[in-house]
Amino acid sequence: MFSTMESDSLGPAESLKALEQTREQNVQRLRKPLRYWIMLACCVAVFALIPLTREWPGWLQLIAPPALILVIALIFAWRQPLAGYRMQLRGRMLLPLLAIVVTIGAVSGFSNALYVEHGHWWIPALGALLLFALVVIAGPSMERWWAKEKSSIDF
Amino acid sequence: MTSDSEAAAQLNPVIHPIQRLRICALLEPVTEEEFAVLRDLLDVSDSALSKQLSALTTAGFVTQRRAASMGRSRVWVQLTPSGIRAFRSHIRALRDLTA
């Protein structure tokens, strides 16, 4: 049933309580579905697998990773359009994103170096698994923190 | 410390009604939000939401724009910089009153 939405002003304590409930609502609604994070994690994991293409022809090495990322994105976007961020990220909100990007770079680089050194096929695969787990676990946590950080309703 | 009367004076009468307060709280963390999404989140009718948005728009706290997307016309609502300032100031006043 619809509320009347007349000038139903509450007292300060009740208003703050309603605001806190709205903040929780914001945290929930601004969260992207898990399938989005799985898609992103798959795309990021592709970077760790690039060293496995070393023996392939040059043109295939160049085309295969972006083609694979495109296929992943198309599969996940098939039934649901990709959600876009409507939150404006500023200042310290960018720090966790930067940390994740640096970690992705470090894991990819380390995995690549180990593969060059030892040549075990499972090293890039393990790197890809680590990157996948990183994005799937850290992504939603970062997003929850963003939603809270963007709200001035803080108690 | 701000006295209760000073804090009460800082309460914004345009924002204070609970649904307008909730509208501001829903709009604050995002660049803009679709009218229909706001309506569903607040569980109100189109006309009731329009009425509240109209009050906020008149005060210069909210802007509305119409845009076509995938063959459908949608109304997007945005909290203006002065709306953000007024909302934050209102929250501070509410906190002062409950401190």
Number of helices of chain B: 5
Number of strands of chain A: 0
Estimated share of beta-strand residues of chain B: 15-25%
Number of structurally distinct domains of chain B: 1
Describe what you observe in this structure:
Chain B: InterPro entries: WH-like_DNA-bd_sf, WH_DNA-bd_dom, WH_DNA-bd_sf. Chain B: Residues 20-97 form the Winged helix DNA-binding domain. Chain B: It comes from Agrococcus casei LMG 22410. Chain B: This is Transcriptional regulator. The complex is a heterodimer of chains A (155) and B (99). By secondary structure, chain A is an all-alpha fold. Chain A is 70% helix and 0% strand. Chain A has one domain. Chain A has five helices and no strands. In chain A, helix 1 packs antiparallel against helix 5 (122-150) and helix 2 packs antiparallel against helix 5. Chain A is elongated and about 70 Å long. Chain B is of the alpha+beta class. Chain B has a single domain (4-93), classed as Orthogonal Bundle (Arc Repressor Mutant, subunit A), CATH 1.10.10.10. Chain B is elongated, with a radius of gyration of 15 Å. The model of chain B has no long low-confidence stretch (mean pLDDT 89). The A-B interface holds A 2-10, 12-16, 18-19, 22-23, 25-26, 29-30, 86-88, 147, 150-153 and B 16-19, 21-22, 25-26, 28-33, 41-45, 48-49, 51-52, 87-88, 91, 94-95, 97-98.
Observed structural traits:
heterodimer; A: 155 residues; mainly alpha; elongated; B: 99 residues; alpha+beta; Arc Repressor Mutant, subunit A; 5 helices; 18% strand; WH_DNA-bd_dom (chain B)
Summarize the topology.
The complex is a heterodimer of chains A (155) and B (99).
Chain A: H1 12-29, H2 34-49, H3 58-77, H4 94-118, H5 122-150
Chain B: H1 4-10, H2 18-27, E1 33-34, H3 35-42, H4 46-58, E2 62-69, E3 72-79, H5 81-98
Antiparallel strand pairs in B: 1-3, 2-3
